[in-house]
Fold this protein.
Amino acid sequence: MLCVNVELKERRYPIYIGENLLKNPDVYPVKAGDKVMIVTNETIAPLYLETVSQTLTDIGCQVSSVLLPDGEKYKTLQSLDLIFTALLKENHGRDTTLVALGGGVIGDVAGYAAASYQRGIKFIQIPTTLLAQVDSSVGGKTAVNHPLGKNMIGAFYQPATVIVDTLTLNSLPKREVNAGLAEVIKYGAILDLPFFDWLEQHVDNLVALNSDDLQYCIARCCQIKADVVARDETEKGDRALLNLGHTFGHTIEAHLGYGNWLHGEAVAAGMMMAAALSEQLGDISKADVGRLEKLLARANLPTISPDTMQPEDYLPYMMRDKKVLAGKLRLVLLKALGQAYVAQDTDKALVLSAISACTQTD
Ligand SMILES: NC(=O)c1ccc[n+]([C@@H]2O[C@H](COP(=O)([O-])OP(=O)(O)OC[C@H]3O[C@@H](n4cnc5c(N)ncnc54)[C@H](O)[C@@H]3O)[C@@H](O)[C@H]2O)c1
Ligand SMILES: [Zn+2]
């Protein structure tokens, strides 16, 4: 088992990464007599709810659960309300612990429920998608969507512990695994060239869910994200680097309709656009753009724009991004592989030409 500590001013908490951790009572920060509510969904419950409940019951906890419907479209205030109602009906007080068992959707909803129920209760994350294990469960962002915007209602709220059981990835659809690898590759590209090199050596093992490599990889990603978050918990500076490829990617997701391309797939193509732009600005070399492209392709991820999108489709969406200030596009770009920065006012003609470079022309 590996352990990464997230160091924050007033709080510090561990992320445990290993096999069979769902069954390991030592990693759960609860004791006999504690009341625990597990939040999960109808897909994950038949796979893992019994195991987690049993471990907590063996510790001596009083365990109950609430099942949400599966999907991003249920990351809503209504789902929050289901959780609150379940907690209130069973007389859960401030000493209750909420456990999020699932992917990023469950983690985000349950996290915000924990942040706001009776002004905040203890929260444990058990992420079961690769994306959640390397990204959404680390850093304390929680939220639900509003009909007028994604993640519009939420809070920064840190868990007491994150428990990553890599065996849960065995049941995850391969496409979801690959989408998670896009965020993994992102960490190497923005901040860690040695990790990028390591990924070039090991990506096939990761695609095949080799356990030792997965554990190392997840720990490395959590460490990178934890370091960034420790420096910039509320996203005033460095944390923006984690958005490499995301402004382009969000545009793809929105244009195609959410769910057609997975988030990680859109981010993969978006990272290629950011890389192409960085090359045009004279920063990274053509060879390095090629390395990124090859690595993404080996993870079965797209490296070009969807064939139903034209380069002109991007800018109107991109200008609505949260990072746009006073009509100026702020994009995360690469000075080099392993070294990202925020470009303050990128020429829109260059942006267009970078997108064109990542668009199939034949
Ligand atoms: N809080 C953050 O910092 C942060 C960061 C990135 C993304 N997010 C959020 O995360 C969400 C996306 O998360 P996601 O990609 O994990 O999607 P998800 O939670 O929708 O999970 C993807 C699918 O896999 C299923 N699933 C989960 N684990 C499984 C398993 N082990 N076996 C079989 N099926 C399983 C889910 O039920 C779902 O159908 C988005 O809402 C996004 O906004 C949050
Ligand atoms: Zn992302």
